[in-house]
């Protein structure tokens, strides 16, 4: 049995789809379906059972989990970087993660969890997963909730027994339910279809031209392959970046969406909202030396190829991962 928390969400459901493709369906999905459309991510997946996160927590607390659990892939969290309810984020992203990690440790169960590149803050301390983490200053409460758990795992010694993954800008199929947190690829696809153009934020720094702000954009299929590397190699533990190691501009990304649609680029630059300006990252790039040194050598998909696959094989067809 493999437990995937957040298994109806973006990365979680993509992980289940790939586990299915590898012939594995003895899976328990844990999530909070609520009133969003993320239940649609489950329709093409094969799994043994589903539980709401609160019910699952109660089962752990009363030691009622009777399955022979091999691993927990903990992707469940509130991933909204604009969420301001700190108490909610602490319960959802910190306390819940602590409970699962302690249970997995007591039962000698493999534990792989989602941290976030948001822990790096403005990048002033770099983006290395080999540097001390106690100096990092996240820019929002979401990033801080992830940072808190990373620090707790380190202080308790669990970092040496579990794998924490700092995902950079992941995009791809099965993110459709995420509302304003959907990737720019989805938003650009919709804008082009509706208006024939896309909007990008102007730069408010003289060292970056409009549209040349940089991000490490990683396709969901690469993020999944990297994640499952840690399931397959339980002896590899610690914090690891999940990215391409190559920063690309928002302009590159926009042009890739137009190219995937066989359309000439039309881009409008708009002012960045005042509420974002002091929290905006102008550059992110994963240092992936550590995961390479650990033995992961698969090349990531080029941005243009990844966007073309997403647009043509999923967005244009309203397709979801799974069922292959």
Total count of strands: 13
Mean pLDDT: 95
Structure annotation, total helices: 10
CATH topology category name of the domain at 2-172 and 217-243 and 286-300: Rossmann fold
CATH architecture of the domain at 2-172 and 217-243 and 286-300, by name, is 3-Layer(aba) Sandwich
The CATH homologous superfamily name of the domain at 2-172 and 217-243 and 286-300 equals: NAD(P)-binding Rossmann-like Domain
- The run of helices and strands is EHEEHEHEHEEHEEEHEEHEHHH
Structural classification: alpha/beta
Please outline the major beta sheet: 7 strands, parallel
- From the N-terminal CA to the C-terminal CA, the straight-line distance is 21 Å
- Name of the CATH first level of the domain at 2-172 and 217-243 and 286-300: Alpha Beta
Strand content: 15-25%
What does this structure look like?
There is one protein chain. The chain has 324 residues and is an alpha/beta fold. The chain has helices at residues 10-21, 53-61, 86-107, 141-156, 184-195, 220-232, 250-260, 274-277, 289-293, 303-315; strands spanning 2-5, 27-31, 49-52, 71-74, 110-116, 163-167, 169-171, 198-201, 214-215, 217-219, 238-242, 248-249, 267-270. The protein has a domain at 2-172 and 217-243 and 286-300: Rossmann fold (3-Layer(aba) Sandwich), CATH 3.40.50.720. 36% of the residues lie in helices and 16% in strands. It has a seven-stranded parallel beta sheet, with helices on both faces. Strands 7-10 form a two-stranded parallel sheet. The two termini are 21 Å apart.
